[in-house]
């Protein structure tokens, strides 16, 4: 099996259009997914647990007599943790500790006490920060199991002070991943249901007889999960659209081509719809990476997923220079951007849009996926132009606080009444005027 990754040259007159085509999902595929997700959401909203059980049978091949049978209790979670080998447990603990330290630092940086200030007349204005009451975390599980995603979702929620974290994770053919369950125990998840896809998102968003409705749903998933989150937004909060994984490598042509080929594989192996792109000013280097891709493919267990992903959604782009590479990187706004160059900071300074930036040859994206500390739940499909990594801030909300003194009511009352009359809103005006002396 060999891979032909499409090659592009930024000097080609149609390059902008070619790039747009590379970045777009097949529109028809997207619409078909959205239509089927809409049906599933409506059905779960109407029929609750019964519909979730049916879809779980259809998509995950798990037949359960009741939704309770799909809940994994606290004891089973603790047992999974206890049964890990010492080496694996230590690795999980190290990752969890590093993720916690990073998010505690983030919480300290963004603040959780709000603020207030007092004006000369005694009026107090400010903002109160409150953790969300109950959140749903989606942990993907269709093609691979993601213990690391349990940590990345649950730890910032608990650091923020969320009372109740409800996790959903599909278990295709009923196969439970012990490391996923152990990670749930380690990160303090409160309840776990083995359901996935749009039906799990619907159950969390609308609530069923068994699954409590949450305030917000966070976490990554495949295109069905992403479409479902998009549709339930408004009924519940969502963090972002974190769909099929993406990696963009900007390289100056001096990193070992085998390293870069493997970095491209690392995201391609997630999903047929994952996207891996390499940009470099050196055409010979792109050829060397293409050769390495085909040489190393033979050793990859997930060959078929990698091949489909790289063939359909992969790209190699020859650019004039590194400045142009950064411009294109900003247009792509990838989930992960590796800047594999000498002095990477000078190029990072030119990047405005990326979910996470990995600077220098030793910062492989995979370290961020598991244990470096920053969150691996990141915006995909160019939404890094306006979205941020999952963080403590996603599990907090803010309320404005106003305590107007009698003196303040005099000054503000006149201003408010004048503007209210201007808007034709009598009650607003009088409500302010009643408090004037
Ligand atoms: N952006 C991030 O932070 C991040 C992190 C980890 C993983 N990921 C991505 O998460 C995704 C995980 O995908 P996955 O498939 O392994 O697991 P998943 O849990 O996201 O999806 C599995 C579910 O998809 C549903 N499904 C599958 N085929 C369907 C169909 N034809 N119709 C309706 N529903 C269907 C099923 O309900 C199934 O339970 C990958 O794309 C990976 O790249 C992203
Ligand atoms: N790369 C994924 C985010 O796109 C996260 C992950 C988990 N495990 C391996 N990788
Ligand atoms: Zn990954």
UniProtKB/TrEMBL annotation:
Q: How is the cofactor bound?
A: Binds 1 zinc ion per subunit.
Q: Which Gene3D superfamilies match?
A: 1.20.5.1300, Nitrogenase molybdenum iron protein domain
What GO molecular-function term can you cite, just one? histidinol dehydrogenase activity
Domain of life the protein comes from: Bacteria
What cofactor does this one take?
Zn(2+)
Instruction: Please give the coiled-coil regions recorded for this protein.
Output: none
Q: Provide the reaction this enzyme catalyses.
A: L-histidinol + 2 NAD(+) + H2O = L-histidine + 2 NADH + 3 H(+)
Q: Which residues bind NAD(+)?
A: 138, 199, 222
Report whether Iron-sulfur shows up as a keyword of the record. Answer: no
Q: Its biological function? A: Catalyzes the sequential NAD-dependent oxidations of L-histidinol to L-histidinaldehyde and then to L-histidine.
HAMAP family to which the protein is assigned, alphabetical: HisD (MF_01024)
| Protein's name according to its UniProt entry | Histidinol dehydrogenase
Which organism does this record belong to?
Herminiimonas contaminans
């Amino acid at each position: 099996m060999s891979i032909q990754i499409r090659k592009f040259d930024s000097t080609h007159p149609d390059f902008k259009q070619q790039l747009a085509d590379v970045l777009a999902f097949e529109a028809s595929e997207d619409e078909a997914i959205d239509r089927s997700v809409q049906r599933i959401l409506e059905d779960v909203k109407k029929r609750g647990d019964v519909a979730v059980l049916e879809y779980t049978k259809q998509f995950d091949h798990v037949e359960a007599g009741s939704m309770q049978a799909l809940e994994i209790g606290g004891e089973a979670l603790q047992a999974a943790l206890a049964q890990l080998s010492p080496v694996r447990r230590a690795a999980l603990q190290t990752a969890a500790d590093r993720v916690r330290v990073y998010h505690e630092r983030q919480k300290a940086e963004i603040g959780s006490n709000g603020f207030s200030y007092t004006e000369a007349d005694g009026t107090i204005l400010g903002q109160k920060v409150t953790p969300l009451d109950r959140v749903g975390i989606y942990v993907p599980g269709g093609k691979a199991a993601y213990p690391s995603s349990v940590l990345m979702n649950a730890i910032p929620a608990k650091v923020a002070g969320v009372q109740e974290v409800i996790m959903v994770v599909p278990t295709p053919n009923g196969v439970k991943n012990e490391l996923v369950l152990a990670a749930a125990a380690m990160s303090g998840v409160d309840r776990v249901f083995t359901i996935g896809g749009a039906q799990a998102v619907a159950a969390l968003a609308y609530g069923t007889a068994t699954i409590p409705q949450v305030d917000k749903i966070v976490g990554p998933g495949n295109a069905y999960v992403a479409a479902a989150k998009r549709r339930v937004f408004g009924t519940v909060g969502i963090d972002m659209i974190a769909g099929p994984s993406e990696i963009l490598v900007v390289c100056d042509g001096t990193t070992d081509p085998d390293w870069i080929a493997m970095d491209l594989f690392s995201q391609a192996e997630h999903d047929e719809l994952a996207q891996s792109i390499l940009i470099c000013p050196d055409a010979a280097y792109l050829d060397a990476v293409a050769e390495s891709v085909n040489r190393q493919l033979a050793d990859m267990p997930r060959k078929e997923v990698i091949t489909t992903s790289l063939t359909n959604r992969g790209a190699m782009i020859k650019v004039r220079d590194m400045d142009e590479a950064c411009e294109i990187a900003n247009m792509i706004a990838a989930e992960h951007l590796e800047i594999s160059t000498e002095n990477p900071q000078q190029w990072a300074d030119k990047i405005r849009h990326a979910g996470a930036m990995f600077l220098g040859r030793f910062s492989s994206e995979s370290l961020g996926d598991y244990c470096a500390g920053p969150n691996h739940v990141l915006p995909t499909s160019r939404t890094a132009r306006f979205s941020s990594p999952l963080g403590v801030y996603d599990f907090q909300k803010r309320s404005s606080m106003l305590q107007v003194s009698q003196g303040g009511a005099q000054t503000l009352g006149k201003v408010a009444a004048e503007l209210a009359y201007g808007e034709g809103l009598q009650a607003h005006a009088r409500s302010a005027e009643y408090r004037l002396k």
